[in-house]
Write a structure and sequence with these properties.
This protein has 394 residues and is α/β, with parallel strands linked by helices. It has helices at residues 16-29, 48-60, 72-86, 101-112, 129-135, 154-158, 183-195, 253-266, 272-283, 287-308, 334-345, 371-388, and strands at residues 35-36, 95-98, 118-123, 139-144, 165-171, 199-203, 229-234, 247-250, 313-314, 323-324, 327-328, 347-348, 350-351, 363-366. Pyridoxal-5'-phosphate binds next to helix 4.
Length: 394
């Protein structure tokens, strides 16, 4: 019998983050007391007024196919949000509401990348970019950023030889490093994109999760960038709506028209009542977003302190998002380290190598969980590290 599977999938790995959290869930199902710091899934319940909106929509019978681009009320709310908060003007037909930001990124790649095209990723980069590029037939090229600082400089951008580069994926606030790009870094990216005539996919999923006065700027606001940027955003992280599957994409008409075909011919639309809840999220009070942010910030301090107190661990302070990305001396093989930590201490973290070559030697720790879980996890982790490297100075 012949091989029925598609060749383009053979180089695509299953998501490393999902693999770890699936294993953690399986251990939990066996009754093990697993502490899961591997997922990007806030422990908060979606705010009540948002849940109610979906519930009422379902009760009313708003359960049929919505317009493929998105329900008008949500499109209007997104348009207003982008204009007021991000300084970005888009017409309705320059937006598409997707079931999750991830589909927005996938549809962006499918709409723009052709076989043989290279797509630049600033390493470390979120785990799902590389498989998405491969699914679209492109070749990922990592631009390595100097570990720990992860500064984006013109020199770093020019350091890779990528003559067929067409697209660059940019993500700030960053998963996994927690870095928030400075004005200088944004300028470096935009100058490089213009110089090399690149399209930029700007993943802004974590824009509301900022600490210590850091500010978010949408890349498309920089001179000459609106016309070459696809802005991707969503509701998962800011509003604790991961399970609702809701995101959106904004791009110039010629690009969005192609992206819209991918969306329409694959998923049709995001769920009607989910979209109405998303509209409420944008229109309604934002104080719960602030409350969640305060808790993440307090967790962040706890995480940075606890990790830096462990032997052989160096953890810079995240500026945004809800991840710490410490370098761990005994995690030079980060997959093995993460596996052992899960088996020996029942603590799930994500191996750094999953985020590209400069991620090796690190692990990603999500602090979108309760302080209690974090404290117990670090107690166990410190014990493992103390047993491994008793001689290292503290
Ligand atoms: C950097 C980044 N982009 C996009 C996404 C996709 O989020 P969603 O599909 O839930 O909107 C995630 C989720 O973890 C992420 O971390």
């Amino acid at each position: 019998m012949r091989d029925f599977t598609a060749a383009r999938l053979r180089d695509v790995q299953e998501s490393a983050t999902i693999a770890v959290s699936d294993k953690a869930k399986a251990l939990k199902a066996q009754g093990k007391d697993v502490l899961d710091l591997s997922g990007g899934d806030p422990h908060f319940k979606t705010p009540e007024h948002i849940r109610r909106e979906a519930f009422e929509a379902m009760e009313r019978g708003d359960t049929r196919y919505p317009p493929s681009r998105g329900v008008p009320r949500l499109l209007e709310a997104i348009q207003r949000k982008l204009a007021q908060e991000n300084g970005l003007e888009y017409a309705r037909d320059e937006l598409v509401v997707t079931p999750g930001g991830k589909l927005g990124i996938y549809a962006s790649l499918m709409a723009t990348v052709e076989p043989g095209d290279q797509v630049l990723l600033l390493s470390p980069a979120w785990v799902s970019y590389e498989p998405g590029i491969r699914l679209a037939g492109g070749s990922p090229v990592y631009v390595p950023l100097e570990p720990e600082e992860y500064r984006i400089t013109p020199e770093a951008l020019r350091s890779v030889d990528a003559p067929r580069a067409k697209v660059l994926i940019f993500n700030s606030p960053n998963n996994p490093t927690g870095r928030v790009a400075t004005r200088e870094e944004l300028e470096a990216v935009s100058e490089f994109a213009r110089e090399r005539d690149l399209l930029v996919i700007s993943d802004e999923l974590y824009e509301k999760l900022l600490y210590d006065g850091h500010e978010h700027t949408s890349l498309a606001t920089l001179p000459g960038m609106w016309e070459r940027t696809i802005t991707v955003n969503g509701f998962s992280k800011a509003y604790a709506m991961t399970g609702w599957r809701l995101g959106y994409v904004a791009a110039p008409r010629e690009i969005i028209a192609q992206l819209f075909k991918v969306h329409q011919q694959s998923v049709t639309a995001a769920a009607t009542f989910t979209q109405l809840a998303g509209a409420r999220a944008l229109e309604g009070p934002q104080d719960e977003v602030d409350d969640m942010l305060r808790e993440y910030d307090s967790n962040r301090r706890l995480v940075v302190q606890a990790l830096n107190d462990m032997p052989g661990v160096y953890c810079p302070s995240p500026e945004g998002a809800f991840y710490a990305f410490p370098r761990i001396e005994s995690a030079s093989d980060s997959v093995r380290f993460a596996q052992e930590l899960l088996e020996d201490a029942l603590v799930a973290v994500t191996p750094g190598v999953a985020f590209g070559p400069t991620g090796e030697g690190h692990v990603r720790i999500s602090f979108a969980t309760s302080a209690d879980v974090l404290e117990r996890a670090f107690e166990r982790m410190a014990k493992v590290l103390n047993d491994r490297v008793p001689s290292l100075p503290r």
